[in-house]
Design goal:
about 350 residues, mainly alpha, 20 helices, globular, binds ligand D61, binds magnesium ion
């Protein structure tokens, strides 16, 4: 949309958005004007919070209180933070947080309340996990921990977005009636896809989010999948079990999308989901994941965006990638039968 007649602060916020996430910037900029600025600010506030969480150079005595009270910064007019390490990739959103605050205070009060409430819950959820000392080295302990951590950093985003879109009348009220179960799945599907994909990159940062309850079936130490060629097959079986776990959210995501009425809101919700199912198909049984970040091709992305404008288009995309995963599955994989059943279930639903 045309930014030229917007205020300098608003233009600067859209600049910060494009600098921190090309993919989310593209879908947020296409949103209906009623929600566009609110969701853009929602993104920037949470990206600022995440930039504190992700920065391994901030010691936990500073990081934990900052995460827990980050929502209070939203009550100020011009708070900023320059305490990130020099190469923390999104440090600019904290250095220029006063620009975000000036637009935040101009939003409708009920939109401000959603942003602040989710910020409070996410900040405290992140702080709870930072305190769990083995969180960094061994990833999260159980699958339950894995689901809870992903709820804090991504499920809550889905909850906030559902509240905003229902308030604006763009989504069916029923989306806010299931205790945000489906909204949570929307976030977990995206976050778990990234966590599987980013195994090697996160290892380089000295951390992992893969749940020990799953990876410990295949190795004693997580880095062996990358370091020791004799653990490559085990690494593939681990990836495949994590993909199977992520696919457990697919039906909820399709069900959620079937209840989004406004066309721009539908595309905003659908595009990240179809990118995720395509990424899951790409990482499934793919040894490259153990040695680097695997991305889907640019050409594929463009095709997916065009195809995901309608619900039947999204269903066709999910059905296609579910078949790709099924065909990639090898009989020797410990979860061969389960992945076949899960793919069948999702296809039924399609
Ligand atoms: O540092 C990075 O670049 C990646 O960080 C990951 C991490 O640190 O785990 C991790 O940081 C999570 C904490 C900050 C969340 C920021 C966020 C992301 C997308 C949004 C979309 C719209 C509105 C607000 C949003 C807020 C991350 O960015 N993971 C990407 C997946 C998160 C998906 C969130 C989400 C949930 C439900 C959705 C429903 C519909 C449309 C978009 C949705 C988007
Ligand atoms: Mg991050
Ligand atoms: Mg993070």
């Amino acid at each position: 949309h045309d930014l030229t007649k917007e205020s300098p602060e608003l233009q600067r916020c859209y600049y910060l958005l494009t600098k921190t996430s090309r993919s989310f910037a593209a879908v947020i900029e296409e949103l209906h004007p009623e929600l566009r600025d609110a969701i853009m600010i929602f993104y920037l506030v949470l990206r600022a919070l995440d930039t504190i969480e992700d920065d391994m150079s901030i010691k936990s005595e500073i990081k934990v209180p900052l995460l827990r009270t980050f929502d209070e910064k939203l009550n100020t007019k011009d708070w900023t933070f320059d305490g990130n390490g020099p190469n923390e990739k999104d440090r600019l959103v904290l250095v220029e947080f006063d620009k975000i605050l000036s637009i935040y205070h101009g939003l409708k009060p009920q939109y401000q309340d959603v942003v602040k409430d989710i910020t409070y819950k996410m900040g405290n959820g992140m702080a709870d996990y930072i305190l769990d000392e083995n969180f960094n080295l061994n990833g999260v302990e159980t699958v339950k921990d894995y689901d809870l951590y992903c709820h804090y950093v991504a499920g809550l985003v889905g909850e906030g977005l559902t509240k905003l879109t229902v308030m604006a009348g763009f989504s069916d009220d029923s989306l806010a009636q299931d205790n945000f179960e489906k909204s949570n799945s929307m976030g977990l599907f995206l976050q778990k896809t990234n966590i599987i994909r980013d195994y090697h990159e996160d290892l380089l940062d000295g951390r992992s989010f893969w749940p020990k309850e799953i990876w410990s079936k295949y190795t004693k130490e997580l880095p062996l999948f990358h370091k020791d060629a004799s653990f490559e097959q085990a690494g593939l079986s681990c990836i495949n079990e994590l993909v199977l776990n992520a696919l457990s959210h697919a039906k909820d995501c399709l069900s959620y999308l079937s209840m989004v009425k406004d066309p721009s809101t539908f595309s905003f919700c659908a595009i990240p989901q179809v990118m995720a199912i395509a990424t899951l198909a790409e990482v499934y049984n793919n040894r490259k994941v153990l040695h680097g970040v695997v991305k889907i091709r640019k050409g594929t992305t463009c095709k997916l965006i065009l195809e995901s404008r309608t619900f039947p288009g999204v269903v066709a995309i999910f059905r296609r990638y579910i078949q790709v995963i099924n065909h990639k599955s090898s009989v020797s994989d410990p979860n061969y039968l389960k992945i076949g059943i899960k793919c069948g279930e999702i296809e039924q639903f399609c």
